[in-house]
Amino acid sequence: MSMLERQAPDLRVQKWIGADGESTAPLKLPDLGSGPKILFAFQHWCRGCHVHGFPTLQRLHSALSPRGVGFAVIQTVFEGADENTFEKLRVNQLKYALPLAFGHDEPPAGATFPTFMEDYRTRGTPWFSVIDAGGRIIFSDFHLDADNLVKDMELE
Q1: Residue 148, domain CATH
Q2: CA 112, 113, 115, 121 torsion: positive or negative?
């Protein structure tokens, strides 16, 4: 069942680093502000995340963060736990010069998938979820056209 136009579930990711790379308390959606929000899910070892996902995120962050759009990045560890580690959060944060909160989401005990994948019904990485100011999911998929989203948000 599609998540589009549904109320965005709050985040259950437990391990985070802040923009400064230091461990921080678990992030909740209201921590990202009262405006629209963009959540980006990745895996460190995902080629598409590095070739397409992070560059798209950089473009969106550069254009939309000054307009009050909140951002968070979540490493969804549904495979490759030996490579997709908590320590890789800071590596990617620095590599892409993204002063954003980065979360590390492993499956809870007894679960197959990380909480973000379960709650947002994602199907892999790179994955973008866009939430409007009212808290409804308006986009959730692999491929996001950054230029079109920036234009759409300029019209709001």
Answers
A1: 3.40.30.10
A2: negative
